[in-house]
Every structure is written in structure tokens, then in C-alpha cells.
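Archive entry. Fields below.
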Amino acid sequence: MAEKVLMKGNEAIAEAAIRSGLKCYFGYPITPQNEIPAYMAAHLTKKGGTFIQAESEIAAINMVYGASCTGARAMTSSSSPGISLKQEGISYLVGAKLPAVIVNIMRGGPGLGNIAPSQADYFQSVKGGGHGDYRMIVYTPETVQEAADLTMKAFDKADEYRNPVLILGDAILGQMMEPLIFKEPSGRTFDKSSWKLGNRKDRPSHLINSLSLSEGVVEEWNWELKKKFDLMTEKEMMVEEYLTDDADLVFVAYGTSARICRAVVNQSRKEGYKTGLIRPITVWPFPSDVISKCTRKTKDFFVVEMSLGQMIEDVKLAVLGRASIHFHGRPGGGIPAEPDIMKQLKEIMKK
Amino acid sequence: MKKVYERNNIALDMPSPYCPGCGHGIIHRMVMDAIKEVGQADNTIFMAPVGCSILAYTYLDLDVCQPAHGRTPAAATGVKRALPDSLVVLYQGDGDLAAIGTAEIVHAVNRGENITAVFVNNAIYGMTGGQMAPTTLEGQRATTCPEGRNPMLGQGYPIRVCELLQSLRGLYYAERTSVHDAKNVLKTRKAIKKGIENQMAKKGFSFIEVLSPCPVNWGMTPRKALEYVEKEMAAYYPLGEFKVDGKIV
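PREDICTED_STRUCTURE:
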């Protein structure tokens, strides 16, 4: 049996990536994700992989673009301001149909903000922070174990769809230590011979590109991409429903906020309140159907986020006026406190 | 009968997308010839820029990667590190390399990436229609400096890229050449070949800057444009070697 280890979230992500066959990591220092590049510098190079501390986040994402062109598994990580700088590169990765794994360990913003945990990059992550019509799978791990598991999954999904995949965590997930067991990577292999660059023998030349000035070509390309996004929507949504069957009120929260809400659910049930939790594990594709179905029995949804309220817009679209939606949010690095949520919950339940 | 000239089979049978009198075609040809001469066509990854020469892929029978504007040296780094035995040829214009992508070229050189860069300096943004480039000469007109580039108006000075990169220890070889006449075309051919051979011998970063005419955006006839390269550009951008075998010349 695999050994149980105690690790920080950032380190677990890095180790899981290496175990998934990561060949090239490129990053730039920014708190609170610095353990990822440090881990890569110490461990990835020993496995024969490449680690480069790039001159900027922009350079790092473009190094990922180059490495991915050759078929190598490639990754970068950063935190909110640095992820903003990578948006151009993410758009290009989608446009050129290149797999990549990107990790955002979110911190408080806007601007330079602070280094405290935050979930304020939700819009940027799921609504396309870069230009053009594009989508990518966004995983939001709640625990260090899940961070490692989803990192492994992210590499497979990136290759399967030839599309970047984002792992969206926050400073708490990145910095906290928890015990975990590394699962065996899937071992799935992906045939990239029809598009990758280099080592050309008896085949036509390959082009990795996102430009065409000929009429209608880019529109057609977008329709092709849409087919892929539709398939992801259909097949890749992940959600956890916790005690929702008999719930009068259902929390909707992801990542660290979901952890806090789970504790509130447990405590409030002890006090006689029937509450539950819908935890999106992918925030794109978003579990709209699960929330929508839940409105048949639950008339109160309580969204908790470490932001001024971003995911709540997707919850509203899923609920479509069929239930009341309540909100508790803490922006700029603030962390929702259980007693505050409990107090608000009791006020809602009084009505 | 002795064959004295042959089409390079790396060039696909397509019309050139470039304007009459443009230098890109001849520089492409020399890059293709060098790749062919060293027998590396199947092992080459051509790194295109954003600019006029983004269209290189339409007629190069090579694997081509086209990254974002200015980011080509970073993407080339990714390619080369993933496939160290491949031949990676970077091809960039002045706006791409010396304005938006200044950080990327400086740091790719500084890391001593084992790649070959061909930097085409025609002192103008061609594809977007003739805006001022970082290498536009003082007094030279462009759509965004219609009175001629004037550093006193805050428009900056033309950047001498070879001189800028020369001090970096990661740079193994740098030469500035020109394509304004046959003699200099041959020198350019030699420099490109040398840059590619350096990479194959794993020597490090080779940088070849080529002064090149853009008659359409300069508002000149092709012949006048060649004279401009010779008399004006080469006067400000001296031709010759800047670094050989890792040593400043």
C-alpha cells in the first residue's frame, strides 16, 4: 500500500505533477505558491525533467507553449497577479490546441493586494480571463489529498482535450499541511504524433498556430473548439453533494469555503437545522443541473465565497428564480468565519 | 550538364506573401539553404514571430511554431529544452524582438539557450502598416512619427540590439549583416550558416541581425530602399561581428 505522507498543498501538487510524467516546469516567484517552483527545482530536475525560473510569468507560460508543442507534459504555476499576466498565453494555448496544466494559488486582490487566501479570481478562471471565445476545465480542490488527485487528473484531461486545464486553489490550500496518499497515476498514454513538432520522419510538416487571415477559417475553428467545450461540459463536470437529500437550506461553496461550510453543516445539524452542501469540484464546467434539480426540494441556497460574490452569478443562473439565494463573502484575503455564517444561517431559517 | 541552381525543396510551391523589394524572401531562402546544407530539415523547428514573417509557415516545409507577439524566444526555450537535439531557429522582426519581446530575447540569450536567432531589422512595423519601430532611425518617417522620429519629442532612440546583447555572457556568437547588395547577401548567408552550425555543435546562443529593406512602408522604390539600408541604416547600425566564440569582438 502506498505510504501516507504529510505535505503542504503546494508540494503535493508539485509531487503529483512529477508522478504524472511532467517533463517541463516553468515558473516565476510569487507568494503563496513558491513551494511549487522550489519543489520542481529540487525534484523534477533529478528525474531528468526541465525546470526554469523564467524572467516573468509571461515568459513562463510561453515556455509552456513551446514545450507543449513538442508533446511534452508541461506546467506552470503562479498566484493571482501572476496569473493575470498569463492570460494571453492561456488564450494562445486554447487557440493552438495545446495541452498544459496551470495552477493558481489565489491571493487577495485587486492589484498587488496581499498574500492572504482569496477566491476572487473566479470570473477570470471560468469566464475567460484572456481574449476570445474559450473554455477550460477548472478544478477546485478542497483538501491536499484532492489537490494531488486532481493534479494527476488535470494532466490526463489536458492531453485528452488538447486544452489547458486550471487548478484553482488558494493560499490556505497551498500552505497547509495535511496527510495524503499519492494515488497511482492513470498511466493513460495519448498519441500526439498527428500534431506535435520535432523528430519529423516521413510525415508532412506540422504547424502550431492560432492565426488565419483567410475568410471564415477562424469562425470554423471556433465551431470546432465549441464541440470540444460541449464535450467537456457533458463529461467533465464534478460535484460533491453533502447531506442535501433532506436539506431545507443548501450551501454552495468550493475549495476552502466549502471546507468551512462543511463544518457549518455539521454543527447546524447538531443544532437541529437541516442543511447540506453542494460543492463544485469543477467550477467550469459548472454543476448547474445539480443545483437546478435541487431547487425542487430546497428553497434556500446559501453561497459562501472568499470574494465579493462571483460564483453566485452562476448559482443564480442555475436557480433561475426558483429559490432564494443568500450570500456570505469576504474579499481581499478575508476568511469566512463559522460563527458568522452560523449566525446568518439562523436568521435565514427564522423567516 | 552541370546543375548550378536548384530550388530548395524546403520552400513549398507557393507565391511569396511579401511585398516587392522586401528582404524577408531572400533571408528566408538563406535560412532554408543553411538548414538543408546541414541536413537537418526533418529535425528543425522554425519559431515564427508575430509580424510580416508570421506568414513564413505558408511556404516553409518545416515544423513551425508560432507563439504570441514577442514571446518567441520564451517558446523557443520551451521547445529546445523539451527536444535538446532538435535544431531550433528563431526568426523575429524588430517590433517583435526589440519592443514587445525585449525581456524574452535578453533572458533567452542570458541563459545561453542553444538556439539560433535571425533578427530582421527593417526599422519599421511592416504588417500593421508602417508604424515606428524601436529601430526606426532618427528622422525616419513612420505613421506614428509622421514628422520623422525625434528623440527630443520623447520618441526614444533607435536601439542597437547587437550592442545591447553583446555584454551578456550567455551570447556565443553575434553578427550584424545586411542584404543590400550581393556581397553582403553572401556575408549574411555565411553568418546564418555559422549560427546554425554553432547550435549543432551545442555552443550556445547565436544571434544574426540582418538589415533589410521595407520599400512599401518606407515609401521608396526597391532600389532607393537598398540605398537607404546601405547609406543610412548601416551607418547607424555598423556591420560586422560582435561576438565570436563567446568573446567580444
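CURATOR_NOTE: The first helix of chain A runs from residue 9 to 19.
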